[in-house]
Structures
1.
Amino acid sequence: MTRDDRKSAVPLLQVRNLAKQYGRRIGCRDVSFDLYPGEVMGIVGESGSGKSTLLNAMAGHHAPDRGEVVFDTRADGPRDTLKMSEPERRMLSRTDWAFVHQHAREGLRMSVSAGGNIGERLMAVGGRHYGDIRAQAADWLGRVEISESRIDDRPSAFSGGMQQRLQIARNLVTGPRLVFMDEPTGGLDVSVQARLLDLLRGLVREMGLSAIIVTHDLAVVRLLADRLMVMKDGDVVESGLTDQVLDDPQHAYTQLLVSSVLQV
Amino acid sequence: MIELENVSKSFSLHNQGGAVIPVMERVNLKVAAGECVGLVGASGAGKSTLMRLIYGNYLAASGRILVGDLDVARAAPRQIITLRRETLGYVSQFLRVVPRVPALDVVAEPLLAVGTDQDRAREKAASLLAELNIPERLWSLSPTTFSGGEQQRVNIARGFAYDYPALLLDEPTASLDAQNRATVLRLIEGAKARGAAIIGIFHDEAARNQVCDSFIDVSAFAPQVAA
């Protein structure tokens, strides 16, 4: 199965004029874009530029003031997720959607074993056979390079990098089609980051995932994202092919951002 | 296969007093299938810039850049992504890879991207690495730790793994010894023979004369107006 097989003329996600304000302050303003199956889009900008607000609004974590987030559902084709009922949206976020938080603790149950963390998502979509669930959990621990012998340990006994990989396993076990990621490599050592990036890239390719990755790390988007959106003060100031935006930035802010990166 | 019409390029530096630096004007060129065109001109004349424009890495200010039937100057990102996967290969001067990925997989990647099965992709990658004299004990290691010359050869192997109908080669023979240089020239000739349209930059004059059918002096595209 390659990315081509899933490629079609219908965007997986269509975001239209999405806007969110906090009182008089602007979170994000009139953001529109299409994301096609198999595409990975990066959103970069400094803290407070609105990138996390946008991500959370798309993922349904908080309601935007206006706009549409149309997702190509398996059953009924394109539907505006903001108009879905709460149970429908929750079902979506357990099956076709996944959300990887910056801090693994927010995405994991710290008092439940590693295996239980992965198994919970399977049970949420109807998995009942204990043996099958445990076998899948073990398989996924292997895929994110956590030893199977840790399956009964709680994530609180894991290192930061392991917690992050466990969070990814928990999210991907149900075979989602769209993954939202908020600074997935933030706060990790560079060596751990490289491993995680490699892992994510492999999974994106194998599973034909689409992903939206918010980060302030330009090196991360260069490696992971096909396309890039640059945000400043709630507006998208530039978007395009990742390497084109980074190598030939057009907007003043993007030029500043790119030229501010320290060379190693 | 590749056709440029009246292409121009300038850079606007917003953070340096809004300076606008025109770098190229009225670029016209045409490369047919099975043909190799060499870009010549002094260092800084814009040879690499022209290549990056064709690859969609730089945005053209005006004109048309046709690769196959896609106008790169106006294409949407996902059209360019497809073009790069299926039609247009680019061997740059520097290898950029994800840390930790073994050399063999780096080379096999373009094949996997078009749906070749793992075994066949790896087989082709292995034969290219062997042909380019990368010792087999290095194949399972990440090329980030390789010497400059080895990285360059991994980069070339990657560029030739899949049979792109069009290829951009930026100094493919730089920093290679005589034997590897001959291998690269043979790969280029093989690509021409199967009908690839190639644009190359070669500082090595003998190499240039061996594989190129014609030359284009990029200095002719320098903007006329003195700044």
2.
Amino acid sequence: MYTLTCKNIVRKVDNDFTLGPVNVKFPAGTITAVVGNNGAGKTTLFQALSGDYPGEGEAKILGHNNHDMEGKASFSYVPQSFPEMLPFRLQQLRNFHAAHDATWQEDRFQTYIQQFNLPMKKRMQHLSIGMQRKAVIALQLSRDTSLLLLDEPFAGLDIEGQTQLQKILLSKMEEDPDCCIVFATHVADEVQRLADFIVLMKQGKASAPMEKDMLGERWKRVWVEKPIEGMENAPGVRDVQREPALQLVTSHAPETEKWLENKGVNVVKRTTLPLHESLPLMLNDEGHTEDIGKENIRG
Amino acid sequence: MTLPIEISQDRQEPIYHQIEEQLKALIVSGYLPADTALPSIRTLASELGCSVITTRRAYQNLELQDYIKTYRGKGTYVQKVDQEKRSQLKEKAVLDALRQAVKIARQHEYADTEIERLFKAILKERK
């Protein structure tokens, strides 16, 4: 079952940048990290999903169009910036949500306020960026929805806040196993700790969601006992490093190892390439972004 | 409860298979007795840094083999494992360990007679 379905979403931002067409489906009960370099279109995608401004295509949330009242009520959205909230105090924003949102959870809100130590009476613009984001997270996660769209939710949070947010998101998934979280990030570690799927974004295009663990099984560093003729061009091999020990970086470990086996060369050790090494390699790959994900989903 | 499971990156087997095998060993050895509550797929995934697709797959496979049972809305629990299955699995665990040792010896180009000599020497070491 899919919580969020994007069909041919296109947003022309200016003459230099167009998002899409994006066709991605996000399954219920999963956490997806949207990863891309600056300017890849992550924020434009989140804005489009949240129904912010018109364009081509359609986003459906649990069967509702994201522009419909039902659609808008069924997701929480933490944008990257929120200028319209800055003149207000958290108390006012809370009152607004509590009065208009049928799913408002006051007890949850009070817990977040305490955890994040948020001042209710100060104007938002007088808070630090991190505190502002914590306030918006507290407001949006106190609404009982089954889709969270979070545009760089960890950015600007202190270390304690990052740990708290991770715990909050995990306990949200425990309470509501059909919940779906989609978050944007630049930090590989956040992907490693939270995500089930990864969507890569490059120049406005989005890959299909890739299983994080399948990437881990394919992207490896393999140490071999001796150099072999043609190993630079062996299947999957991206890089050969000779110092301090001979090692191959591969994007298709099973194929590379098969090749090595056929050559009669022993593998000394192998290790999964950490995401902070494999993701940049993927983001720099040529070729169609839309095609990247396809081989990284189990049948 | 955090389970004493460790994912090895030096293995070629998929992560779900590693989780499956290690959980099986914990159950068969009696370390996790019948009716022990196991962590949810989400909790286990976050502890191991893997995805719920992987932990769900491991749990599903274990459930198919009657090691664990998931009750909707309640959680996942260890099942009773019968004696015959238990001894089969113990033998398999020992065989796997020996196989691994032989593999390393052969990588170092030891002949079978040398491997046997080393094996007997280990058996003579004090228990």
